[in-house]
Amino acid sequence: MSNNVAKIGSKRLPVLMAFSFAALAFVGCSMNGNVASVRSAAAKDVASNNYAAAESKLKLAIDDKAKGDGAVSPDQADLLIDLGKVYAKEGKAAEAAQAFKKASDIQQKDMKPQMIALTRSLNGLGLAYMRQGKLEAAEGVLQQALTIREDNLDAGSKEIAESENSLGQLYFESHHWPEAEALYKEAQAIYEKNSGAESTDAANVRNNLGSLYYAEGKLAQAEPLLKWSFDVFEKTSGPNSMDLANSANNLAELYRAQRRFTDAEPLYKRALGIYETSAGKDSPAVANCCNNLALLYFSQNRNADAEPLYKRAIAIFEAEGGPNSPQLVNVASNYAELLRTSGRVNDARAVMQKATSHIAQQ
Description:
This protein has 16 helices and no strands. It starts with 32 loop residues before the first helix and ends with a helix. By secondary structure, the protein is mainly α. The chain is globular, with a radius of gyration of 21 Å.
C-alpha cells in the first residue's frame, strides 16, 4: 500500500466516521478452571460495558499466570487476546497493540496447533495498528490473518468474514474504497448466511458499508444500511453499547449531510452520552462526537452552542496527541472557521497556530 494516504476529514467535515467492530466474543479453550472462570467473568463485565473491571481481572490473571506457568503458555496468550479486545473497546490503541503483539509472539512459538488461534491476535493487532495510523503495518498483519484463515478454514467461515471486515476497514481508512466495498460485501454475505440477517455481526458490516457509501457521497445507498444497523443494535446491544453509539453517530452524520437537523441532534446526544459512560469523558470517541455535534450547531448558526464543544474536542485531542494529531488539526480548522465567520479573525489564527505548534512538538 502506498505511504501517501489521504487524510481523513477536512474543514466542515466530521473528524472520522466511527467503525463498529465485531462484538467481543471470548472463545473458551481447554485450560485450568481458574483461568476459564476469569475469562468468563471478564466477558460478563464487557457485556455490561464495565470495561475497567474486565481489564483489572485480566491483568491480574496474566500476572498470576506468568508467576506460575511462565509467560509463554497458550493460556497466557488467550488472556492477552481478551485483554487486547478490552483495550480496543476502551479506545486504548497502544495498549491493545502491545497485548496482541505479546499474544502473537507466544502463539508463533508453536505455529501448527496454534495456527487459527494466531489469527485472532493478528487481527486484533492489525486493527490496533490501524488506530495508531500505522497503515502499512496493519495491512501486513491483517492480510496474514486472512491468508491463514483462507488456507485452513472452509470458505464462508465467520473467521474469514471477520478478516474481510477488518481489512475492509483498513482500506476504507486509506481511501481504497472499491477494495473496501468488495470486502464488506463478502463479509456481509457470510455473516448473513451463518449468523442471520439481524445478527450483530451482520449489523457491524452493514454499518461499515453504509459509512463507506456516506464517505463517497452515496447518501441514498448509505441511509438504509445505517438505519438498519442502528435498529439492530438498539434491539440487541444494550443501552450503553459502543456499537450502538457508533451507529447513532454515523446515522446522525448522514442526517446532517441531508440537512435533517432535528433528526440528527438527538442521535448525536445519545451517542455522546454512551461514549462518556463507556469510553470515558476524555476519550477520542467523545472528542469526535463533540466535533460532529458542533458542526451540526454551526450549520444552524448556533455558534454559542458549537463553540464549547469545539473547545472540549480540541482539549481532548491535545492531551491524547500521537495518532490523534490529524483530528486535532481538523477540529481546530472547524473551530477557526466558526471564529472567522463571527468576525474573530485573530482568534481563528491563534487557534490554528496553537494546533500546528502542538503537533510539531509531538
